[in-house]
Amino acid sequence: MNQTDWDIQAIFEQGAQALAAVFRPGRVLHLGIDWQTLYCDPNFVASQCGDLKRTQKILTTLARMEKTIAELRPVLPTCWIHHDIPMHRSLLLDERILEGMDAGQTQSKLDELRAEANAICADVRPGDRCFAKLGYDSYQSPDLQAYLARSEATVHLLSGLVRNDCIRKSEKGGAARGYNMFVIEDLTVNDYEYTSEFYLGLYREAQRRGTHAVRAADVRSIAAQYLP
Fold first, then answer.
1. pLDDT tens digits, residue range 141-193?
2. Could you tell me which SUPFAM superfamilies the record lists for this protein (predicted)?
């Protein structure tokens, strides 16, 4: 590994140590941001997403997220956060057709992927809470604010999309409100491919706010000791 990779590894290790120090059942909450907007919303039209590569990346991360959250649900409850209006619909309007596929073939593949994603999410919802948000920052949601005011959960773990917009702004919003913020990095998706240097800068910026970057494997390892 080069120095940047070593620095990122050190940040993940620091994040795991920080999470282990504060993880307590009843005090920890998972916020899944904007997953429903793409796949759990029955009004979503698959034809509005023409970027097959991005859809496949989201689906892969979604499956990893579902596995992690399903395993940890007894000690890590979830709130699903979604837009209450079709904001950022432009993110789904990329009409490029994958090279070698015509429009009908691409549509068919996207329908297949959406059906698979809906099957993954089928057992995510029961017992979880859903809140609409008004903008990028999930913590602007009045309903979420009211729920958190009644909750003892002060440690928040974020997953979702996209990493450099709604996740980043929600992380900043949570930190500004005094919550212990952790982003589960391998359970987030970005719109574009970024360099390791970009992510290192992102993590260091978050660290200055007191936010930590963690990996799903470390979250599972820390939480496992509290599972019944």
1. 998 999 999 999 999 999 998 899 899 999 999 999 999 999 999 999 887 78
2. Isochorismatase-like hydrolases
Residues 103, 90, 124, CA angle at the centre, nearest 5°? 85
Kind plus residue range of the DSSP H or E element containing 79: strand 78-83
The token pair that represents 114 in the structure block: 């959406």
Angle at 188 between CA 98 and CA 202, to 5 degrees: 110
- At 44, list the tokens: 């979503």
Strand residues in 110-215 grouped as ranges (E)? 129-133, 155-161, 180-189, 212-214
CA–CA distance, 106 with 79 (Å, rounded to integer): 32
CATH code for the domain of 153: 3.40.50.850
The token duo for 71 is 């395993």
Give the strands of the sheet with 212-214, arranged side by side: 129-133, 78-83, 28-33, 155-161, 180-189, 212-214
Q: How far is Cα 62 from Cα 112, in angstroms, rounded to an integer?
A: 15
- What predicted TM-score, i.e. pTM, was given to this entire model? 0.82
Report CA-CA distances (Å) from 40 to 32, 36, 100, 124, 196: 12, 4, 29, 10, 31
Q: Is 212 exposed, middle or buried (0-12, 13-18, 19+ CB in 10 A)?
A: buried
Q: What is the pLDDT of residues 109-121, one digit of tens each?
A: 666 666 665 565 5
Compute the distance between CA of residue 8 and CA of residue 155 in angstroms, rounded to an integer: 22
Domain count for the chain, please give it: 1
Structure tokens at 4: 């940047």
